[in-house]
């Protein structure tokens, strides 16, 4: 087998994503101004802790205290749960804020009310309020707020100014020391899943990571948890008991013959794809039922409507590029990769897959490859521009060790080159292995090329392919096979 790999040089790669896909020159200038303001705080990096954000919010007259919240944590699935919750609460007639991270293209994606992103002008105004109480020259470096803390404070200010009825808040990293964890009494807390990701900051073991996630639990506040590994489950259980926090363990929703789901007597059709949405959607329904018990008016009809309308771009997203089908998914850790592979095996059984993958240097590369790759698959590796990317050559060597019978293995200087090669590979049954790729059975759907490995890479794709934009991405969910189980 020929294992020679093309030389990859970062000096040849695009160091930054192309200009954002905006609708006007004015919007582009607004985006650049926001980027410049936030870049001033980027040098402080990721520095988990609550002292800075608490002092910052106190100086702003505590806008977060004006907003009832649902707080959602988890290694995977928390974004989907936030999307479901926000959509249902809006359908129930509540003015609903949603705060999530990271964004795919625009900073404005992170802050939404009833599904509408904050305007650039309103974001500038919220940042004005935050910066009005920051005097960097008077602060030691370790007390200057980080970029995430500044933006999080801006979100609370916006939600308070807009007088939202409720906000759904996604944890940025971990939970215990995350800048979103400043609420003494959220309405309900949710831990969707716990897996091995961000171990460099959260701990090497699942128990340590669970301890960080369980840091969002509050005394006497109802908590919802999805199925967890045993060592994580014991940590969350102990923490809930110590806080006298009522804890509901969620099981995956029941799948009907029609592809609908049933959880706690409510039948619904989720808008998002994948077997893992059985758990994600069930966590959302359980949280909504907790709100019902507190007096919030949320009908079954609102739940059914909201679950069908939830949008979460870049996760099992189907698009057409250059006339070819492309499945986009932000899977960037082993658990998410297993969910992606399960979806493909169930939806396109016995078929080889063409992969287009880029990953950050800090991720679990062996775990992701072991979950995704199978003999006969075709693998194209690209860098993640503008971030600490893993070297595609190093990834290629690792992929060969984990799955030596790949049909094609190539590295590329950038995403566009990788896309062109991947689409060509769909039509050429040639490559590295002596054995041909698995042939799909007659009448089966053809497996698409799959782009995955990093949400930053997905965002770069959307920025490069402006014809899609996030509006298309947010509405392109395939309703005909919501769960992908045959």
UniProtKB/TrEMBL annotation:
<dbReference type="InterPro" id="IPR013221">
    <property type="entry name" value="Mur_ligase_cen"/>
</dbReference>
<feature type="domain" description="Mur ligase central">
    <location>
        <begin position="72"/>
        <end position="218"/>
    </location>
</feature>
<dbReference type="GO" id="GO:0005737">
    <property type="term" value="C:cytoplasm"/>
</dbReference>
<feature type="domain" description="Mur ligase C-terminal">
    <location>
        <begin position="314"/>
        <end position="399"/>
    </location>
</feature>
<protein>
    <recommendedName>
        <fullName>tetrahydrofolate synthase</fullName>
        <ecNumber>6.3.2.17</ecNumber>
    </recommendedName>
</protein>
<keyword id="KW-0067">ATP-binding</keyword>
<dbReference type="GO" id="GO:0046872">
    <property type="term" value="F:metal ion binding"/>
</dbReference>
<keyword id="KW-0547">Nucleotide-binding</keyword>
<dbReference type="GO" id="GO:0008841">
    <property type="term" value="F:dihydrofolate synthase activity"/>
</dbReference>
<keyword id="KW-0436">Ligase</keyword>
<dbReference type="Pfam" id="PF08245">
    <property type="entry name" value="Mur_ligase_M"/>
</dbReference>
<comment type="similarity">
    <text>Belongs to the folylpolyglutamate synthase family.</text>
</comment>
<dbReference type="InterPro" id="IPR001645">
    <property type="entry name" value="Folylpolyglutamate_synth"/>
</dbReference>
<dbReference type="GO" id="GO:0005524">
    <property type="term" value="F:ATP binding"/>
</dbReference>
<dbReference type="InterPro" id="IPR036565">
    <property type="entry name" value="Mur-like_cat_sf"/>
</dbReference>
<keyword id="KW-0460">Magnesium</keyword>
<dbReference type="Pfam" id="PF02875">
    <property type="entry name" value="Mur_ligase_C"/>
</dbReference>
<dbReference type="GO" id="GO:0004326">
    <property type="term" value="F:tetrahydrofolylpolyglutamate synthase activity"/>
</dbReference>
<dbReference type="InterPro" id="IPR004101">
    <property type="entry name" value="Mur_ligase_C"/>
</dbReference>
<keyword id="KW-0479">Metal-binding</keyword>
<dbReference type="InterPro" id="IPR036615">
    <property type="entry name" value="Mur_ligase_C_dom_sf"/>
</dbReference>
């Amino acid at each position: 087998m020929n294992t020679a790999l093309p030389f990859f040089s970062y000096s040849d790669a695009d160091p930054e994503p192309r200009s954002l896909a905006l609708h006007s020159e004015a919007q582009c200038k607004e985006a650049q101004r926001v980027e410049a303001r936030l870049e001033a705080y980027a040098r402080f990096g990721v520095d988990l802790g609550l002292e800075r954000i608490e002092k910052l919010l106190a100086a702003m007259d505590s806008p977060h205290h004006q907003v009832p919240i649902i707080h959602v944590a988890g290694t995977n699935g928390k974004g989907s749960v936030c999307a479901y919750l926000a959509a249902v609460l809006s359908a129930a007639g509540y003015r609903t804020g949603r705060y999530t991270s990271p964004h795919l293209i625009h900073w404005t994606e992170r802050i939404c009310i009833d599904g509408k992103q904050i305007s650039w002008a309103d974001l500038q105004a919220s940042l004005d309020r935050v910066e009005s109480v920051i005097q960097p020259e008077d602060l030691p470096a370790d007390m200057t707020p980080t970029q995430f803390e500044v933006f999080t404070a801006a979100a609370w200010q916006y939600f308070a100014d807009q007088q939202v009825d409720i906000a759904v808040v996604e944890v940025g990293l971990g939970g215990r020391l995350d800048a979103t964890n400043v609420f003494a009494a959220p309405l309900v807390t949710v831990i969707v899943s716990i897996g091995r990701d961000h171990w460099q900051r959260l701990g090497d073991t699942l128990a340590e990571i669970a301890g960080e996630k369980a840091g969002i639990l509050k005394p006497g506040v109802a908590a919802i948890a999805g199925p967890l590994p045993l060592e994580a489950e014991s940590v969350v259980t102990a923490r809930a008991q110590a806080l006298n926090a009522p804890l509901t363990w969620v099981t995956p929703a029941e799948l009907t013959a029609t592809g609908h789901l049933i959880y706690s007597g409510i039948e619904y059709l989720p808008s998002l794809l994948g077997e893992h949405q059985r758990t994600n959607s069930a966590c959302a329904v359980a949280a909504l039922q907790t709100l019902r018990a507190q007096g919030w008016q949320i009908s079954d009809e609102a739940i059914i409507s909201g679950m069908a309308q939830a949008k979460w771009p870049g996760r099992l997203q189907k698009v057409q590029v250059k006339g070819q089908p492309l499945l986009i998914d932000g899977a960037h850790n082993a658990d998410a990769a297993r969910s992606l592979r399960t979806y493909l095996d169930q939806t396109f059984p016995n078929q080889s897959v063409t992969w287009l993958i880029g990953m950050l240097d800090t991720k679990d590369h062996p775990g992701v490859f072991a979950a995704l790759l199978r003999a006969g698959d075709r693998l194209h590796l690209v860098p993640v521009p503008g971030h600490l990317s893993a070297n595609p050559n190093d990834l290629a060597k690792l992929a060969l060790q984990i799955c030596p019978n790949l049909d094609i293995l190539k590295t590329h200087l950038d995403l566009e080159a990788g896309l062109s090669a991947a689409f060509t590979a769909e039509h050429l049954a040639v490559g590295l292995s002596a054995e041909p790729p698995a042939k799909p059975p007659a009448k089966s759907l053809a497996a698409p090329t799959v782009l995955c490995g990093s949400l930053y890479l997905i965002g770069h794709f959307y920025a490069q392919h402006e014809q899609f934009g996030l509006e298309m991405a947010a509405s392109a969910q395939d309703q005909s096979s919501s769960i992908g189980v045959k």
